[in-house]
Structures are given as C-alpha cells and as structure tokens.
Amino acid sequence: MDLADLSDAMIHLTNVAVQKHNDHYDEKRGGKWDLRALKLHLMMTEDPEKVHQLFNDMQDVIRFSLLSAA
C-alpha cells in the first residue's frame, strides 16, 4: 500500500512472462501459491476464525457460480 510501489509492475501483475524477470522470481513455484499454501500463510498471520470464514465464503462463491451456470 506504499505509493512508491504503484509504478512497480512486478507487484501488481500476475503475468509470469513479466514476473520471471524479477530478481526474486522463484522458478520452481512461479509467482503463484496453491490454496493450501495461501491458507497456511493466512492462518499464521491472521485470525484463524476469519481465515476459516474467508475460505467458506470462497467455497460459496464457487458453488453458487457453478449453480448459476448450470
């Protein structure tokens, strides 16, 4: 949320073609986390109850999106 970061494309873009030129790019994992890694990170840094609620809400969004398409 630092204004100085607004011009840093490596922070905002999820395009691997751009990210792979970053000095901190991890060739093994790329610029992506799987959901398990994300949840573990959030559980260590945030209120676990809020993390569980977030993941339940994400499941609902996916479920209702699929139901609406069906």
Automatic annotation (TrEMBL):
<protein>
    <recommendedName>
        <fullName>Tubulin--tyrosine ligase-like protein 9</fullName>
    </recommendedName>
</protein>
<keyword id="KW-0547">Nucleotide-binding</keyword>
<keyword id="KW-0067">ATP-binding</keyword>
<keyword id="KW-0436">Ligase</keyword>
<dbReference type="Pfam" id="PF03133">
    <property type="entry name" value="TTL"/>
</dbReference>
<comment type="similarity">
    <text>Belongs to the tubulin--tyrosine ligase family.</text>
</comment>
<dbReference type="InterPro" id="IPR004344">
    <property type="entry name" value="TTL/TTLL_fam"/>
</dbReference>
